[in-house]
Amino acid sequence: MDFLHYFSNVFTPYHLLLLFGGTTAGLILGALPGLSPTMAVALIIPFTFHMQPDSGLILLGAMYTATVAGGAISAILVNVPGAPANIATALDGHQLARQGRASEALHYCFFSSFVGGIFGIIILIFFTPPLADLALKFGPTELFWIAILGITVIGTIGSKSVIKGLMAGLFGLAISTIGDNPMLGEQRFVYSEHMESGIHIVAALIGLFALPQILTLMEESRRESAGAMFALSESRWLQSAKYNFSRVKALTIGSIVGSIVGVIPGAGGQIAGLVAYDQARKTSDNPQNFGKGEPDGIIAAESANNAMVGPSLVPLLTLSIPGSPTAAVLLGGLLIHGLFPGPDLFTQHAEVIWTFIDSLIVAQIFMLVIGLFLSRHSGWIMKVPSHYMAASILILAVFGTYSIQSSYSDVLIMAILGVAMYFASKFGFGPAPVVLGIILGPIAEDNFLQGKLIGEAGDGVMNYFFTGAINITLILATIGSIAYSVYASHKMKQKAALS
């Protein structure tokens, strides 16, 4: 119970100011396409050089939690996820916004983010030692099967047709192979100098989501004589809170899935959000409503994204193994202040580490309060005429894409993918399966190749990939996911035939 002893350290005026500033800046930066939580935390690290270790970590932790939630703002309001972790949020969040319920959707986002975030930090506080042992058991084969489990949801995420979803996902997997071969270092499928470094995930994300939205807004602007994006109805946060906390199943699924994925080194928030969304849809009484503005989709995805934050620090603080890309940047923040992760960290630097962990709880409260304030004023964005909104999103898209690697090639690739996605969307193809394929492709390929090498040097590849409790559990989950998708698709066809 050491965390209670150091709680008072968080409530100094200076630390509260850092929490408020870090949370506010994190929500704003998270909402900007291309500025992911990883980039936001990396940008703020230089400002912590001359701070005390606990103060610097408090600022970094506040930025981390807030940017994960902030990416949902642009996902809901303009259908452009602020980061890959918010892809699932856009599927139902933007549909709610188009129904005039943008404030309501944002309320669901921040309430569920708060619940998931607190759940994840509780896991971090009380279950660090056993979870650290679990993290060590995840090797190449386990991560490969996690990627395959994620691939099984491609056909049913963000597309009206399973076949079209699978086709879009396969296209994403093909894109992920462009660039250097991870084993031999040779270039493959490089047809232009602009493709030599491969396709960056954030450039693809912005292109596939932002550009089609820009072109759609321009179309609407021509039809509606430069009117606002869509109407907006009022929503009281107390009503949204009552409904949000009544959705126990979606909150539980999101929090548990996010916590499990967070502990696994290298998995990241994008997998947590998509898997939680898929599980919420499969266990829902009304799965046909997902993708049409179903609140449970937002609640599950956002609670998973933020539940991932706390557990992602477990392998980082105990084993020096980051559980997410942002946690890897936080590792740099620890080392800068002379804090070396390991079992001794909680004894030799107990005051610093427990103050940092306690501050994450307070950061969740700040994130909720500031997020609800921003939700109240979301109508300002909705009232902006479509052609002005299209121009604003275009500027942010180009700026966000170029800032990734300061590369003109990224901007060009973003534009090509965006235009292609715009025309593909006219035929029922969605961007989410493509992005999911791009994300999961390298994870599956890299870990398969590593596992193959280890297996060949040991008892054989088949034995290495198909033995072990975790591998067998993940294989069964993959088979179950495929079987349920086929069953659900058949059942929905039967309902459609009867109606």
Major sheet: 2 strands, antiparallel
User: How helix-rich are the residues, as a percent range?
Assistant: over 70%
- With strands numbered from the N-terminus, the spatial order across the biggest sheet is 1-2
Please state the CA-atom Rg, rounded to the nearest Å: 22 Å
Beta-strand content bin = under 5%
Low-confidence residue ranges: none
Tally the beta strands. 2
H/I helix tally: 25
Between the first and last Cα atoms, what is the distance in angstroms? 58 Å
Instruction: Assign the structural class, choosing from mainly alpha, mainly beta, alpha/beta, alpha+beta, or little secondary structure.
Output: mainly alpha
SSE succession:
HHHHHHHHHEEHHHHHHHHHHHHHHHH
Mean pLDDT: 82
What's the overall geometry? globular
Total of domains: 1
Q: Care to give the gist of this entry?
A:
With 499 residues, this protein is an all-alpha fold.
Explain what this protein looks like in three dimensions.
There is one protein chain. The protein is mostly helical and 499 residues long. It has one domain. Helices cover 73% and strands 1% of the residues. It is built from 25 helices and 2 strands. Strand 1 (179-180) and strand 2 (187-188) form a beta hairpin. Helix 4 crosses helix 5 and helix 6 packs across helix 11 (237-246). The radius of gyration is 22 Å and the shape is globular. The mean pLDDT is 82.
